Amino acid sequence: MRQKIVYFDLMRCVAAVAVVVIHVLGPYREQLGIIADSSWFTAISFNSFSRWAVPVFIMITGALMLSDTREFNFGYYVRRRLGKVLVPFLVWSVFYAALSGLSASGYTFAMAWETLRAMPFHETYYHLGFFYYFIPLYFVVPFLNYYVRKTDRGGVIGLTCVWLVLTTLFLFKIDGFWSHELILYSGYLLLGYGLFCYQWPPLKSLLVLGIAGLLLTDYMVVSNSFSAGEYTVGRWLSYKTLNTALIAAMVFAVCRHLGEHLSPIWLERTAFMSRYSLGIYLLHPIFLWPIREYDLYFAHPLIMIPFWTLICTALALLASWILAKNTKTAWLVP
To answer: What are the backbone angles phi and psi of residue 14, rounded to the nearest 5°?
Structure first.
């Protein structure tokens, strides 16, 4: 058994909460000119400051799986790694396809059926898109694992820098073969490994770059949207761009620093929530559905976004814990 790395628990917790934030604020995005500018700006700032969540999950995977020095076993890998995520994803995709037909006005079977038919090509619910680019990364991991074993610190940093250049090209819409999402998402595996094994880039540098990235991202999204008179983001909120990569790296490094100084009681709490972080990711839209469907946003976004994030996260955590307690349903929240 590998030794548990406690600060990864903190990373999973904050990333899970940030994902819920992104989905809670969703209805605000298209309300520029409909609600007060200050309310819209607040919601979009929450959005801009939360885009690192999905990359952090990928970076944790890279840190753990690329640093695994055990001999590669294909059967074990498929069964314990890929299968552990793929099977629950398929089941939840069917469930959410069924949910997609439900609205405040009733149930539309045709919509649910069309959503299910499109499942091989498109997510059945908004939060499941993550798995369409995360699962293919399992086929990249063995190759990157081989690479990091055969190279040194310089080789890892060098390839990571090449990837950062590609994310920069993608940000500014200079497209080519490097724009393929498998290439751009794979780099997060290597970035997570570099931060984990070499603490590169260093925390002090990442604080400057990450905070600058947060502020620049928010400024570009808000200013471009106001100029266009509608919500527009370019690629500034993409998961595959330099600004997001630097912000995600900063969050990773900060969590590492803070996680190493947590008190025993907080270590216990974060470990509990971390255990069900994937469950929170999978289940929170169930509890968010009535909030969005019935527009239960009755106060300023500065209040509503944290309020509903807390409620949905807590309910999803509770539901995940209940499912995990039963051996017949535990596999649904691995």
So the answer is: -70, -35
